[in-house]
Every structure is written in C-alpha cells, then in structure tokens.
Design a protein that fits this description.
The protein is mainly α. Helices cover 65% and strands 0% of the residues. It has one domain: TerB-like (Orthogonal Bundle). The mean pLDDT is 88.
Length: 133
C-alpha cells in the first residue's frame, strides 16, 4: 500500500518478513506468491530475490520510522489474507513483528481493522474494473 516509500534496505527486510509469514502455515499458495509479486512490483524491485533472514528481530531492526513500520504491518496483514485464511500462525507472526516495532496492542488492533477495510475497498474497486459482457 505504501511500500514504495521504504528504503532499499527496508524493502529487502520487508520481503524477508513476507517470506517468513507466507511459510507460517507450512504451505505456500499461488495466491500468496502472486500477492508478494504484486508488492515487489509496487516497490519497484521486481528483480530482487527474497533473501531469507534468520530472525524476525534482525529484519525488524532495519525499519527506522513509525511510517515505514506501519506500512510494513499493513501489507503483512494483507499478505496474511492473500489466501483468504489468516491462520493463527500468521496472526502470531504479524503480532510478533508489531511487538518488535514497539506498536501498542490497541494500535495493532486498529491497524488490523484498517488493513481489512483497505482490502475490502480494493476488492470493491476491482468489481468496477471487470468487464461486463
């Protein structure tokens, strides 16, 4: 959503966090791969491979501002819903990332709600873009 504003280091770290997230439930679906590919395009780094990180903590250290942390959380939540099933493992990972970012629990809940609203609006907009025959 706002990932284009991240620095290159933050973008790479975001991709590492996204990789951890999509592997959380033990299966990587095409919908998740497609969503991450779309996010890479948004960030302008379509040719950058996702480099696995050893820990969430290490990847989170590269995010320096509140703006970039919130941007990452919103899009990580969206990735969690890419397969329409935001499983408990994915929710726990996003919550752990939020904790690393020092985002208060109440604000985290508000960000989850906001991410769902944004996803709903994107789906609604998509219906207007579909051709009717």
């Amino acid at each position: 959503m706002f990932l284009a504003e991240l620095s290159m280091e933050e973008k790479k770290s975001f991709l590492s966090l996204a990789d951890i997230l999509i592997r959380a439930d033990g299966k990587i679906l095409q919908s998740e791969k497609s969503f991450v590919k779309q996010l890479k395009y948004e960030m302008g780094i379509t040719n950058v491979e996702i480099l696995p990180t050893d820990t969430i903590e290490n990847a989170c250290q590269n995010f320096k501002t509140k703006r970039t942390k919130v941007s990452a959380i919103l899009d990580l939540i969206a990735i969690g819903y890419a397969d329409t099933q935001y499983c408990i493992e994915e929710a726990e990972i996003v919550k752990n990332i939020s904790d690393e970012f020092k985002i208060e629990f109440e604000e985290f809940l508000e960000l989850e709600s906001l991410a769902l609203k944004i996803l709903s609006l994107k789906d609604e907009a998509q219906t207007y873009m579909e051709e009717k025959i």
